[in-house]
Amino acid sequence: MLDPVVLFFILGVLARLLRSDLRVPEPLYDALSIYLLLALGLKGGAELANVGGASLAGQTLAAIAMGCILPLLAFAILRAGRIDRVNAAAISAHYGSVSVVTFAAALTYLNTKSVASEPTMPFFVAVLEVPALLVGVLLARLGTGRRAHVGHIVRDALVGKSVMLLLGALAIGALLGPQGVAPVKPFFSDLFKGVLCLFMLELGLVAGAKLKELRRAGAFLAAFALVVP
User: What is the model's pTM?
Assistant: First the structure.
């Protein structure tokens, strides 16, 4: 797929494999992640203003159920593959949640193909974070004798940087609506794909640095990572 987002990721992987001194400064990486979260939230929030509350409530319950079921399924598979409990729980939580970057890349790809997506999708990215993290922590602590403080887990998930920025931008976008968001659209919409390319360059650098660990992880984990999504 000849798309700038994918090609920038490949560039990052190649740079790391060739031992280039290419680096994305950490402050810039943080700024890019904040931008992407705010841009996704504002766009989704502006479109949420036209969505009925009744249908959104039902879909939210379905998303929460998915956020609980998917980690449980992934955990069962990983434990069957003899992955230790803590690592299996941590990986499972990731698969029950949604990577904002993966979501942004998928959304960009759909836009290039002129495929419309539901305006509520950014909201569900945030919704899925809490049940997945909660189930992951509970799975990790079961059988260890350690107590899982559900209230603390939920609070930490909700006030974490990613969820806070995404939910906050969603609320602002929903409050302002499409017309209210229009003045900042050139910054948060028109520049989105270019910023995503820079972010994918950094992810490519990270992925390239981790490729050597695939051999240590084993064929089972590699197959799991490819098949489960």
Answer: 0.77
